[in-house]
């Protein structure tokens, strides 16, 4: 199973753990990730807020390189996935747009390949049964809130791989890894994105609401597939709690990090030792880092 791999800007900077764990897990499960050579920024929020055509041309260039290799594209970042899908859809639906985009990027692009969220690839292509067969350290006793955020499953006409209001792909993955996905109402609510920087009063309040609802639902950690969601929740957890007279100790995980743990890799190999909210005390308390044969029986 081979995919063109588009890491995007975040996975080479603030989300290095995501890149590290994604590549490790993919290799373990027999998924070849061919990183698109000389890939460029997809434009993320900035481009489509300023110039619609630019917002399509930027991701289309990367898709065209993968298309020339006959490969679908696996995208770990939710925002990048959303922008690449937007370009793919626009070109596929309009011959004039296809011609315009091809002229701008200086290469032919016909949208014959498909953009896939890495979560979608793992759950629906690799398959939960295969993943479950490879688990050597189940996430037993670990209650987790699957947090999809805004861009992974919406708008549904673009993303088209899970329910936009009650997505379950990450929940089912957590269950396959031996953990428990809690039921909660904030799984697709916005974390505020860049508002945490531009309007801290609003952004921090939105971060707090996500974390509070996860905790109140019984979660001991939050799982995401979005670098910005991860950064907001992990880096600003203490700030959000203090601003509302509250306290949290909720580690934030990329889904690939949890996959790596369950497949037997060490926290350092997955980037777990670099988080702002240290997840190791929770993992040690649950004895997840120990081999199942040496775990203590719980009442």
TrEMBL record:
Residue span, Cysteine-rich domain: 3-84, 145-234
Gene3D superfamilies: 1.20.1050.140, 3.40.50.11810
Entry's EC annotation: 1.3.5.-
Keyword Lipid biosynthesis recorded: no
Signal sequence annotation: none
EC top class named in words: oxidoreductase
One Pfam family in the UniProt entry: CCG
Keywords, comma-separated and alphabetical: Oxidoreductase
Superkingdom as given in the UniProt entry: Bacteria
Molecular-function annotations in GO: oxidoreductase activity
Protein's recorded name: 8-methylmenaquinol:fumarate reductase membrane anchor subunit
Gene name linked to the record: lutA_2
């Amino acid at each position: 199973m081979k995919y063109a791999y588009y890491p995007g800007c975040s996975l080479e900077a603030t989300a290095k753990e995501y890149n590290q764990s994604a590549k490790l897990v993919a290799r373990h499960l027999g998924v070849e990730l061919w990183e698109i050579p000389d890939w460029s920024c997809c434009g993320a929020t900035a481009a489509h807020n300023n110039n619609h055509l630019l917002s399509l041309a930027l991701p289309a260039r990367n898709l065209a390189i993968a298309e020339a290799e006959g490969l679908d594209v696996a995208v770990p970042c939710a925002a990048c996935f959303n922008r690449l899908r937007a370009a793919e859809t626009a070109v596929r639906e309009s011959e004039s747009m296809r011609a315009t985009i091809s002229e701008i990027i200086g290469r032919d692009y016909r949208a014959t390949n498909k953009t896939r969220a890495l979560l979608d690839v793992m759950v629906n292509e690799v398959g939960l049964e295969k993943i479950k067969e490879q688990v050597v350290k189940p996430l037993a006793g670990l209650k987790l809130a699957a947090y999809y955020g805004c861009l992974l499953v919406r708008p549904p006409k673009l993303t088209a791989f899970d329910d936009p209001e009650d997505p379950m792909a990450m929940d089912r993955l957590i269950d396959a890894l031996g953990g428990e996905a809690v039921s909660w109402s904030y799984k697709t609510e916005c974390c505020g994105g860049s508002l945490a920087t531009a309007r801290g009063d609003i952004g921090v309040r939105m971060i707090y609401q996500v974390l509070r609802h996860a905790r109140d639902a019984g979660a001991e950690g939050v799982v995401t597939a979005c670098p910005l969601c991860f950064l907001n929740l992990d880096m600003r957890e203490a700030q959000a709690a203090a601003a509302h007279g509250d306290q949290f100790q909720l580690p934030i995980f990329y889904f690939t990090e949890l996959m790596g743990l369950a497949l037997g890799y060490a926290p350092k190999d997955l980037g777990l030792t670099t988080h702002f909210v240290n997840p190791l005390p929770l993992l040690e308390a649950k004895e997840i880092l120990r081999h199942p044969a040496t775990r203590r029986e719980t009442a």
